[in-house]
Amino acid sequence: VPSNCQRDFHLLAFDPDGDDVRCRYGNTSLSECNRCTPPSVLKLSSSCSLSFSPSSVNDQGLYAVQLVMEDFPKQTITLIQADMVWAITTNIPLSKLPVQFVLKVDPSVPSCTEGLYLPKFLPPTPANRAELYTSVNHTLEINIRAEAKVSMISELLLSGPYNINQTTSGTGRFILRWTPSQREDGENHPICFVVQAVLGSTKYHSELRCLTVSVGNEPSSNATATPETPTTSPATTTETTAASNQIVVGLRVRVSSLSPLTDNIRKTVIQQLKDELERQGTPLNFTLSFVGSVTGRYNPQRPAAST
Question: Locations of Low complexity compositional bias (predicted)?
């Protein structure tokens, strides 16, 4: 992290049972680490977020971050084993896990604005702490996009399942593919990544993003989508189910043209709409088409035709 930039690190805190997950610094008296000195340049919240505030040149260097992640019940629970009974309150952790890594504070960067020197994520990159679902022997595809106008994006630094596959489809465009096996059914797997850019010998990192992939059935729900259509065409309703993963969405669009709306103009408009929807995060494998239109006859003295 550059020494002159405010950065927040929202660590992935996930519990499949829905327990309350909290973070704290390690405690020497509990033998959780040896010299559990919290880094002076970081502030930790119980919700597992770390905040780095701009510091002086003297603070540059390496810092050991030694955390403990714990899960707490959201209400008092009773545990029974043989002839023993325990009452666990909301202040008693059920389990704990060490989280340890190194933070490097680099020299200052000319600008802290993301997208210049520091890479900036673009849609359809999943949001931090997003939860995705896939099934056994089904390939999950995750598209990641980033830009940096001054530095040059060089690679994606990734942590995830051992058999995850990474490919590049252009500068700042990465695709992750993972096919879980039968032995991973019912499991939850974290995937974390940052984009690295370079300028000369200097390296710049994007924010850290982590997501959880659950292997198994996605929470079932039936969806009904009704596309909007002009009055010249009968309205239709398309039912979809979670099994098909297909959703129909209707958009009402007005397109104006000083010339007749030819097929070429329509194709151009559709492509522009698709590009904008993809930029806003719409999955790449969607189909877009006009389902109805009201077209005015071309006349230079009349308002432009529309659809």
Answer: 219-241
